[in-house]
Design a protein that fits this description.
This protein has 285 residues and is an alpha/beta fold. It folds into 2 domains: 2-152, Rossmann fold; 159-266, DNA Methylase, Chain A, domain 2 (Alpha-Beta Complex), CATH 3.90.120. 26% of the residues lie in helices and 14% in strands. The chain is built from 9 helices and 9 strands. The strands form 3 sheets. The chain has a 4-stranded mixed β-sheet, with helices on both faces. It has a 3-stranded mixed β-sheet with strand order 7-8-9, with no helix packed on it. Strands 5-6 form a two-stranded antiparallel sheet. It starts with a helix and ends with a helix. It is an enzyme of class 2 (transferase). GO terms for molecular function: methyltransferase activity. Belongs to the class I-like SAM-binding methyltransferase superfamily. C5-methyltransferase family.
């Protein structure tokens, strides 16, 4: 406890393990052992003498349905934070990468109330005050569909604006071998430089074919012209970083392998979205 009070932190940023909340997982929430570190921090907020003024948390879409969310919001309300919840996607910022995530912003500026609500019905926002964002479409069941509603929006920038200019030699390590194209080409998400979307890049990119990120077909018509080693490649780590909003001066240490770079980026977050939220949290919320 003394250690955390000694830090005297103004801001906590948190991106706790997402496995307890993913749609593909068991969705055990607070009962999952991987959520215990986050539960510790939630409990800690009530005990700190010097609480952080600001909190910013990111997690996968699905966290908003968990019991961990309810536990967190009760604690925040009880110790004097007001908070806002968002479900946002980089596509809304005209960036051609789909990565829907849950974000929570909290600010300590009211006395502890000592009592909390039993339930916190969904009140998620898809727009940020003072920021121009593309609004996702609502499906027939009222559910917001980010990907389908924004994928081809004309305001989203084309993929080509985020690509590197690679020489034929520099592109060789990123070409997809014929065996992979033959066996798994049909499950890849394929985009062209003119497209306005890419799928979420995960730490398994290049290692697994399905659901780990898009591949790039440089010529021809997707679905009509065959994919070959010469016209199809993976996005480079630099290109993935560009799509995730990392600045041009960002780079990995020379000792970082390409594979490690993909894994680190896949475990990262959208810098563009978080930077926007951070500015709003500190200056306007």
């Amino acid at each position: 406890m003394a250690l955390f009070d000694a830090l005297d932190a103004d801001l906590w940023t948190m991106s706790p393990p997402c496995q307890p909340y993913t749609r593909q997982g068991l969705q055990k929430g607070s009962e999952d052992a991987r959520s215990k570190s986050f539960s510790f921090l939630i409990d800690l907020l009530a005990k700190l003498k010097r609480k952080p003024t600001y909190l910013l948390m990111e997690n996968v879409a699905g966290f908003e349905k968990s019991d961990t969310r309810t536990i967190l919001l009760r604690q925040l309300q009880g110790v004097g934070y007001r908070f806002e919840e968002y479900l946002l996607n980089p596509l809304q910022l005209c960036i051609p990468n789909s990565r829907t995530r849950y974000y929570l912003l909290a600010k300590l500026d009211q006395p502890p109330c000592g009592r909390t609500s039993e339930e916190f019905p969904p009140q998620f926002r898809h727009n940020v005050s003072g920021v121009s964002l593309i609004q996702p479409a609502a499906g027939v069941d009222g559910r917001v569909d980010f990907e389908r509603g924004i994928w081809h929006h004309e305001e989203v920038r084309q993929v080509k604006h985020f690509m590197e200019e690679l020489s034929a030699e520099a592109a060789v390590p990123f070409r997809i071998c014929p065996k992979v194209l033959e066996r798994h080409g049909y499950v890849h998400d394929v985009v062209t430089p003119e497209d306005r979307r890419t799928c979420c890049f995960t730490k398994g990119y290049t290692h697994y074919a399905e659901g780990t990120g898009s591949i790039l077909q440089l010529s021809g018509i997707v679905g009509t012209d065959p994919m070959t080693t010469d016209n199809t490649r993976y996005f480079t780590p630099r290109e993935v970083a560009n799509l995730m909003g990392f600045p041009a001066e960002f780079g990995f240490p020379a000792t970082t392998s390409t594979r490690q770079g993909y894994r680190l980026l896949g475990n990262s977050l959208s810098v563009s979205v978080v930077a926007m939220l951070m500015d709003y949290l500190i200056h306007r919320m």
